[in-house]
Amino acid sequence: MFKTLTAAALATALSATTTTRADAPPTTASVLAATTAADWRRPDPERTLYIDLDAGRVVIELAPDFAPRHAGNIAALARAGWFDQARVVRAQDNYVVQWGRVDAEQAPGPRGGAAESLPAEFDRSADGLGFTPLSDGDVYAPEVGWAAGFPAARDPDTGRAWLAHCYGMVGAGRGLAADSSDGGQLYVVIGHAPRHLDRNITVVGRVLLGIEHLSVLPRGGGPLGFHEDDADHVPLRAARMAADLPESERLRIEVLRTDGAAFAQLVQARRHRHEEWFIDPVGRVELCNVPLPVRMAAD
Amino acid sequence: MFKTLTAAALATALSATTTTRADAPPTTASVLAATTAADWRRPDPERTLYIDLDAGRVVIELAPDFAPRHAGNIAALARAGWFDQARVVRAQDNYVVQWGRVDAEQAPGPRGGAAESLPAEFDRSADGLGFTPLSDGDVYAPEVGWAAGFPAARDPDTGRAWLAHCYGMVGAGRGLAADSSDGGQLYVVIGHAPRHLDRNITVVGRVLLGIEHLSVLPRGGGPLGFHEDDADHVPLRAARMAADLPESERLRIEVLRTDGAAFAQLVQARRHRHEEWFIDPVGRVELCNVPLPVRMAAD
């Protein structure tokens, strides 16, 4: 029995990636192994934000298809160096990590022409938006799936669509007013999907790489996980748009397309768990439990 | 606009606990403020496990109503000192943190008569099990709610009930065989609820306090978040049953009962968000987004 408890054998436990025979039903691992170049896309460097911490780089793909004004503001702020004095000010367990400038009221910092407040971009028209539906249902929305590469929801009755607060999604902090966000205060989900935030705040994108540099940060001791002592803030070292770096310095990131056959197979493999470890094959999958694979390009 | 971005004002953003007027509709904060002593219970010290790390104490309430044999084995192992040489061997982002003895095969350690493997306790009969249903639906199970103070699910067709893998739930790692767990390897959920694990592994309880000592641990660099270098393991300093400590050294923890009127009000307050910050009051709530409040007794 202890043989099953060695580190190597433990690696089979709770596995999401256990390999299976070539003739076996598809698993996440076998679907990904069978993908071709056409199944992957390269995020637009004009939509890609690099945030550097001492611990490493966080890569965020912005979602101008849903939040064009916030995405534009964030890019303008990054280009003006506004985030270079920003800090992680909040880390609330099972909820969010949030960063911004703590001196904003006293010293607004260089804004590069970014608006100081923006209209809410909580949702958008579903018209003209490609949408890959998930058939397994959802507690919060009439319909869920993926749009523009992000987890999203849609309401056929109202004709509206919005981004879903899954793990790793990034939003723009706001005050009480719907139009009080400018993209200069951002948060990332580091816990169970707080889907009650959907349509209550502007979601601006998601973390593609490096979320582990944020999710492990010590939790704040104040209300809502804010740090009570400024000394506990974690500084951002730099925030830049990928497009502003020489091409040789850009990460060659690829993301699995959510509108292709490979992704449909991945969803199926996550719904019906054929990895050897699973005893009950499940048969259902929730929106936020479908991974959106990211890899570094081989070339 | 920047006034809304000071630390104090930011504390209103994303708030789950914003206070409201006494005559306002109920919120999480107002429901909790109105609870009486009868709404709270004190976990049985015979079911309460203290795990001490250098960073602090993690308190786990075991669930013998669902996993009696695992709960018994875990208590026996803790009492024998088996966990005192255990280490956190795995931290996988958005999934689990796991601990056990890495030397188990070579040096099994003191087991106090604990069985070396146990039958699976993936589910149990729903007969005789008090169950507080949640009416909002679920992607994975025909019915969800709370039983014995834990998030749970139930299938009226089969008459079975099981614990749900919400954030903070603790399970017993196993190998490929259903009966390969003994409770000596434990994991805790630190990400979006991996509900596909339900009925695939034995859930043994949940973390009541101190999960932030586990959720912030550096993620492992190997497959499935296992640490590749033993030097990255985080040692457990002690693991004891609360009942084995003098009463003066036990934490006076109280947990909100899940079978009373106050909890029903809490669910309603989480379903319909009346905090001032919310613009869309939501109207739905998912099982794993209902908090199970824990506090220290005032006396």
Short summary of the structure?
The structure is a homodimer of 299-residue chains. The first copy, chain A, is of the alpha+beta class.
Characteristic terms for this protein:
25% strand; 17 strands; disordered N terminus; homodimer; 13% helix; 299 residues; alpha+beta; 5-stranded antiparallel sheet
What does this structure look like?
The structure is a homodimer of 299-residue chains. Chain A starts with 6 loop residues before the first helix and ends with a strand. Chain A is α+β, with helices and mostly antiparallel strands. The longest helix of chain A is centred in the N-terminal third of the chain and has 13 residues. Chain A has a nine-stranded antiparallel sheet. The N terminus of chain A is likely disordered. Helix content of chain A is 13%, strand content 25%. The first copy, chain A, is globular, with a radius of gyration of 20 Å. Chain A is built from five helices and 17 strands. In chain A, strand 8 and strand 9 form a beta hairpin.
